Amino acid sequence: MAKYTKREAQDWAWATIKGEWSTVMTPFTPDDQLDEQGLRNNIRHIRALGTRGAGVTWGMGEFWSLTREERIRVMDIAADEAKGQWPIAAHVTHTSYKESIALAKHAENAGFDLLIVAPPYIVTKSEQQVVDFTKAIADQTNLAIMFYNSGQFGITMSAQGLSRLCEIPNVVGVKEASTNRDISIATHVTLGKKKIISTPFDWIYFAGKQYGFNQQVMFANTSDWRFDQPGRNYYVQFIDKASRGDIDTEFYDLYLRPVANISDKWWGYTVQKFGTWPVTLCKYWGELMGMAGGHVRLPLGPFTAEEKEAIKKDLKSINHPIVVK
Asked: I need a surface site. Which of 69, 75, 111, 321 has the fewest CB within 10 A?
């Protein structure tokens, strides 16, 4: 639960948004209902890894397939599980700014700590439209906002555009997920001392050593619960150290690079097959780790039995700590 005023949002963010933050999937039952108990179990599993905070109804949480009532229910479950003791963020982007504001107000009233806002997809063509849309939401909430920069929303903001957007007082930073290395690096270099900038890919920590910046948070990805198990939280350990400026390359190469290579292989494969967020991969991978997943909703589709077996075989080849039901 947020314990800061709007004016204190940036200071709160510097002190709180650190280390590994997770992205929570939205599990479904076989009859296509929200798997509420599965969601609760998943959140408890993620917290047990030592993850510092998490977001719900994000891209990997299939916000684009959820009804408004489902998005609100996911928020309420996450808030109930966090109980004000674990920072949580809600993704409130919508094509309608009124819907975004309604979702933001619900998140604030439910006890969320933070919002994430992305461009309103479909009609947005200019950076100024994105700035205006974000400001309309920011003006109606006391919560801090992390802006989500990704071409999956139809427009990718430049480092200069992100700088203008970050002039909005309670926009405390950017999840720079454009997959454009130049934009990520430029955003860190130009904004990193004023706002929290996070690129959700491991390479950014190694690049930071070269370009003279240090990313204080991995905000946010699925690698914690896909790479780690309670008692073997090597990814969370690496990110926590890296976020403090200690890039332990030997540790990464020993414990994480083999599984990261497999993740990269299937991540790219899934994006090429379905053309968007690799939710199909993450849900199946989560099930292998003992978590609730279920199917993905249209327009995404499932893996074949052969693809699932190939993923499982790759993970077994490196003795990944999968839990196969």
From this structure: 69
Helix (H) or strand (E) holding 260: helix 257-274
In a domain, 289, yes or no: no
- Domain-embedded: residue 298: no
Tokens of 115: 């919002």
- Residue 162 sits in a domain whose CATH number is 3.20.20.70
CA 15 and chain centroid, separation: 19
How confident is the model at residue 161, as a pLDDT?
A: 98
Q: Which domain holds residue 78?
A: 6-247
pLDDT (mean) for 49-72 = 97
Taking the mean position of all CA atoms in its chain, how far away is CA 219?
6
3-state secondary structure (DSSP) of residue 191: helix
pLDDT in tens, 76-109: 999 999 999 999 999 999 999 999 999 999 999 9
State how far the alpha carbon of 30 is from the alpha carbons of 40, 230, 296, 312, in Å.
17, 27, 11, 22
pLDDT of residue 281 exceeding 80: yes
